[in-house]
Design goal:
Strand order of the largest sheet: 5-6-7-8-9
Helix content: 40-55%
Distance between the termini: 20 Å
Number of helices: 11
Radius of gyration: 28 Å
Shape: elongated
Oligomer: single chain
Number of strands: 13
Amino acid sequence: MRNTWTALLACILVLGLAAGTAEAKQGRGNGQENKQEAKASDKDRNEKSSKKDKHDEIKKNTPVAVTDDTYGESKDQKGRKGHNGYNGLLQAVENTKDKPAGAVIANLLLTKYPERLTPEQVTELELIRNSDKALTKAAELLDENGNVTDAVYMQEEAVLADVSNLDSYKKLDVFSRKAGRSSGMKLFVNGEKYDAEPINRNGTTLVPFRTASEALNAKVSWDPKEKAVTVSRNGVSVKLFVNSAKAYINGQPYSIEQPASIVDGTTMVPVRVIGEALGANVKWEPESQSVVVYEQSTISEAL
C-alpha cells in the first residue's frame, strides 16, 4: 500500500506541475503572438528566439516533480555517479515536512538509502512519512484530482497514523460518502474499521461483544444458563448479564445505564464499559457517527 500511494501521489504532483507549466506557456505564447502582430520586425523575432532558447535551457535543467528522477544521482565530468540525489532528498524533506511531498520524499529516503541513514534520521523520517496531517493533505490532493477511492485509502492511512485524532475519522467519512460507500454508525478499534455495526440504545452505544473484545485481544466467553458475557484481558475480568443493569469488574458489582441485550441473535454490550474496563479509550465522533476505541500503546507505537 505504501509504494502504491507514493507512486500515485508522485504522478499527481507531476501532472499538477505540468498543467501549471502548460498554462504558463500558453499565457506567454498569447502575449508573444499579440506582440508579434503589433511589432512584426526582425529585431522582435530575434529577441523572441533568444528568449525561447533561454527558456528551453532553464526548463531542461529544472526538475519537474518529486520523483526518483528529480533527485536522481548526478554524474561528474568523468561520468561517475555521485550522491546529489541523497543530499537533495535530505534538503527537500526539511522544507516539506507537513506536506504531501514530504511523505513521498521521506519514503524515498527510507526505501532507497536505508544504509546511509542514522537511527535518528530513520525515526524522524518515519514520523514524516506517517504524519496524519501530511497523509490527509495527500488524500485531499487525490480527491481534487478525481481519485476519490484512492483518497479513501490514503485517509485510512492517516487514521492509522494517529488513531486518537477524531478529525481524521470525519475526513474519512467525507471521502467515503463521495466514493459511494455506506454510511451509518461505524466501529473503529485501534484505527481499524470493523464490519459489525454498532447501535444506539437510549443514548448508550452497544457493539457486538465478540467483535469488540477480540479486536482488543481479549478472551470472551458466553454462559447460556446465566445469559452472561465475560470478557477478560491482562488480569481484568468484566462480566455482563443480558437485560440486567448489573455488571461485575474483577468480582466487584457495578451499575450500568444500559444492559447487554440480544439483537437479531447477536449479543450487544455497552462499548464504553468493556473498553474502559480493559484499559482502552472510547470516544464518539458525532459527524461521522464513529465509535472510536483505541489503546494508548497504539498511539505510542505510531509516534
